[in-house]
Amino acid sequence: MHPLTWLTLLAPGGLLAVSMTPGRLAAAHPRLISTAGLCAGILSLLVAFVVDVAVAIHGPVWTQVAGFAGIGASLYFDALSAAMFTLVSFIGVIVLLYSRNYLHGDPGQGAFYKGLAFTLASVLAIISAGNLAFLIIAWIATSLGLNALLLFYPERPAAQLAAKKKFIASRLSEFFLFCAASSLWSSFGTLAFPELFTAARTAAAAGQAFSLTLPAIFIVIAALLKSAQLPFHGWLVEVMETPTPVSALLHAGVINAGGFLVLRLADIVAPSESALHLLSLVGGATALFGSVVMLTQTSVKVALAYSTIAQMGFMMLECGLGAFAAALLHILAHSLYKAHAFLSSGSVIDLARASWTPSPGGQPHPARFALVLAAAAPVAFAVGGLMHAGMIENPGAATLGAILLMSLAHLIANAFDETTKTYVLARAIGMSVLIAASFFTLHGVVEWLVADSLPKALQLRDVEDLAIVLVVILSFGAVTLFQSIMARHATSPFWQAVYVHLSQGLYLNTLANRAMLRVWPRRAAVSSL
Predict the structure, then answer these.
(1) β-strand 71-77 against 61-68: which pairing, if any?
(2) What is the percentage of the chain residues whose pLDDT exceeds 70?
(3) What mean pLDDT comes out for the span 279-284?
(4) Model confidence at 136, in pLDDT bands (50, 70, 90)?
(5) What is the pLDDT of residues 107-126, one digit of tens each?
(6) Same domain, 407 and 478
(7) With left for phi above 0 and alpha for psi between -120 and 50, is residue 207 left, alpha or beta?
(8) Which of 173, 198, 312, 474 could join 227 via S-S bond, C-beta 3.0 to 4.6 A?
(9) Rounded to an integer, what distance in angstroms lies between the CA atom of residue 166 and that of residue 283?
């Protein structure tokens, strides 16, 4: 067994040991349990740093701990898993440290730390799994741990409802992932990742990609369900009944499991156009929906929840466009941002008071705004082309760059109104170009780091790919324009009505709640889970 294996097992093993603390001891000595959990989290972060160095020097490492024929407990570390392992360990330490004071004095603090440690250990097991069977076991364990955290206050009806909907989505996700594993075992006779990836590349190179279509679609469906994509997104909005550290861990770590699954099995998903198109359509629709609804929320945490739904949709869209390195970069950046956003959500009033409001009234002239918005995509394509990530060679990264610049259109258009301060306009334009260059630079770095772990970015192949890209760019341009129009005509009865409907998420979650309460009475929620 590779020496790295024993060291790696310490990370989830230490957290798992904390989660197995007897309940009576945890209740009597919550501070001790919290200290032990924090120490286990710090240990996992140290292990992650060692793994990063080992993978950088020696390359991917696969080892069988127990089992046979690619089934059982095995570990696989490459650049992808090393990056995600470090991310989750780092966020875990921050959340564990934050929870020590946040829950101080709460009678359930010990039990909370047990659930938090178990969930973290399960996520780390997903990332380090060396075969699909072991990944499925960790996948199920993560759902069970998260359900326990969602019901930390079991008497709250909203918490019960969120747990029930999450329970159903998780079981469906596990079913489709099991179907994918069965299909792959039937085709290739192994579930070990190195052998599975080699077999998938061989089949694709031999023109037999059709053998990967069914398992690829199963994998995509499982990932979409795990990452709260339409129409199974409602539970993520209702997890605000749990303590804030759970929201931070969920939105910054657990919710990324679906994206990690697609990236981990990208060699199987990439050759299937059907699977990629499904990712693009569902991910793009979810991103649009979450982005628009987020604009109308008055609750900080609910707005952050819709933001996460939208960002997961973005990430699925990037995978569907074949920009796997861009999707990984998105996961890393979004996780760090969202963990900070949730843990600092109590300071939102201070941030709002300190923010700068442009004149006049914060709303740019419609003509100037439209011109700036129209120029965003060509600028992004030009910068991306100079950095070998143009529309032809990497449509996914180019599309994301265009959307990124369109999000700055409001700032640039407002800068035109600062007629007495020319440097404001120059600074806004310079910052936009710098942001575009920074994005494509970071994308290039990530693409180089994971060159041996993820397939190369898919080029623009046919008219269908071009149509998807154009629809995505035009749709997000329309959302940006819609945001400006709605703010400018806030007193209009029509836009007030639109605002009300959007603030309710177009009632999709309400309909899901009604259906859920009919088939699963509230009284049985706690006992059934």
Answers:
(1) antiparallel
(2) 90
(3) 90
(4) very high
(5) 888 888 888 899 999 999 99
(6) yes
(7) left
(8) 312
(9) 19
Name the residue range of residue 464's domain.
358-488
d(CA 235, CA 251) in angstroms, rounded, equals 12
Q: Cis bond leading into 245, ω under 30°?
A: no
Which among 58, 71, 61 is positioned nearest to 8, based on CA atoms?
61
Same domain, 325 and 369: no
For residue 453 the two structure tokens come to 């772990």
How far is 324 from 270, CA to CA, in rounded Å? Answer: 9
* Any domain includes 148: no
What domain count does the chain have? 3
Distance (Å, whole) CA 394 – CA 324: 10
CB 502 within 8 A of CB 292: yes
Q: Give 272's DSSP letter.
A: -
Asked if residue 380 and residue 443 are part of one domain, the reply reads: yes
Each residue's pLDDT tens digit, 352-388: 444 444 444 456 666 777 777 777 778 778 887 777 7
Confidence of residue 137 (pLDDT cuts 50, 70, 90): very high
Whether 323 and 222 share a structural domain: yes
Same domain, 306 and 252: yes
**CA Rg value for the chain:** 23
Residue 419, number of CB atoms within 10 A of its CB:
9
- Which residues, in sequence order, are CB contacts of 238 under 8 Å at separation 6+? 158, 159, 161, 162, 165, 509
